[in-house]
Design a protein that fits this description.
The protein has about 350 residues and is α/β, with parallel strands linked by helices. About 30% of the residues lie in helices and about 25% in strands. It contains eleven helices and 17 strands. It has a five-stranded mixed beta barrel with strand order 6-9-7-8-10. The longest helix has 18 residues, at about 120-140.
């Protein structure tokens, strides 16, 4: 196993689209949302154990989740859990992790990935990451993974690539597009040169630090100034000060859309970002009339079909005459809504917060 390979797992989100099962105090990356026996962050960590030594894996998360990470990933030392005092999107999160790793090992090659994605073909994923780490090191370029689209999905960002190729498979990126309309997504699919943006990045420490210098110079200065303090007892104090000075910006917008050395590797390894209940429903085991029930021991359904049901395992639940619905109960809260209206969940969370405060959020 290559000692220069490192992984950064981004685990700071609150997963509000999975409310009420995902709460601010216990968001979806710490939940076994598919009923597999392991939480999403545990699955992500286990995947990266096949890529790099365990001491080279870091988690960036909100400081309030430190003990959750330590409980779920007991092999991880506290100095591998990088805490953010506030949410500032992905650019500061990437800067913190990469500048810290660069101070440990200037020759590092780093993969950065979200903590809450599903990968069905783990061997394919590991091979793709290792190939990307080699190319990123050899060419000092920024690599992103693109997923071959199976449908015109409006929930994903898209990457357009050119025929300019390095190492046989890595295509020069032409454009990044945020979540498009259905009509535009259809034209992307028809053109054949667009991929879904998986939000997984691979680069050398040197290349990403250089990119921060060039495209986000103020953020670069903030995290470069903290170099003497990484891996010391002063690290948290200086990083907390750094975050207060950072703008709220994504790594996609801040660097990837601007840099001229970005390449995408078209990939297929059974990927889903598990962004919505619809994506959970698609992946879950279903009965002969299309009901996905997690866990299923005490749920009885009559004349009901195509429902997504997630309820506490100790609760007896009877559903009759329900078709194409989401039924979720957790934390003394019950949510019942049509599957085709699940995009309203974020608004529901905002309304609940306004009416009842943070008790149910």
């Amino acid at each position: 196993m290559n000692k220069n390979y490192y992984a950064i797992i981004m685990a700071g989100g609150i997963g509000s689209r999975f409310w009420p099962i995902s709460r601010t105090s216990h968001p979806k990356q710490f939940i076994d949302i598919l009923g597999t026996g392991k939480t999403l962050i545990q699955q992500t960590y286990d995947r990266f154990l096949k890529v790099c030594p365990k001491e080279n894996i870091f988690v960036v998360t909100n400081e309030s989740y430190t003990e959750l990470v330590k409980t779920q990933l007991p092999d991880m030392a506290y100095n591998q859990i990088l805490t953010e005092p506030v949410m500032r999107n992905t650019a500061p999160c990437v800067a913190y992790g990469c500048f810290k790793i660069e101070s440990i090992n200037p020759d590092a090659a780093i993969v950065v990935a979200p903590s809450d994605h599903l990968i069905l073909d783990e061997a394919g994923f590991v091979a793709t990451i290792e190939k990307s780490l080699q190319t990123a090191t050899k060419h000092q370029c920024l690599v992103t993974l693109g997923i071959k689209p199976s449908r015109p999905d409006t929930g994903y960002g898209y990457i357009q690539y050119t025929e300019n190729v390095i190492d046989g498979d890595f295509h020069k990126v032409k454009t990044f597009t945020e979540k498009p309309t259905l009509e535009i997504a259809r034209t992307f699919l028809q053109s054949g040169d667009f991929l879904w943006n998986a939000g997984i990045f691979v680069w050398s420490a040197k290349a990403i630090v250089k990119a921060f210098e060039q495209y986000l110079p103020e953020m670069n200065d903030i995290f470069a100034e903290a170099r003497p303090h990484y891996n010391t007892e002063n690290e948290r104090t200086h990083v907390n000060q750094a975050y207060m000075q950072c703008t709220n910006i994504s790594i996609d917008y801040g660097i990837m859309e601007k840099a001229d050395n970005v390449y995408v590797l078209p990939s297929e390894f059974g990927w889903s970002d598990l962004g919505t209940w619809a994506s959970i429903y698609e992946l879950a085991d279903k009965d002969y009339v299309g009901n996905a029930v997690i866990p299923s021991e005490k749920v009885i359904m009559y004349d009901s079909s195509n429902c997504m049901v997630n309820v506490p395992e100790d609760k007896l639940v009877i559903l009759q005459g329900l078709h194409d619905y989401i039924v979720v109960e957790s934390n003394n809260t019950l949510l019942i809504c049509p599957r085709d209206q699940e995009q309203n969940v974020k608004k529901v969370v905002a309304d609940v917060k306004q009416q009842f405060g943070t008790k149910y959020i």
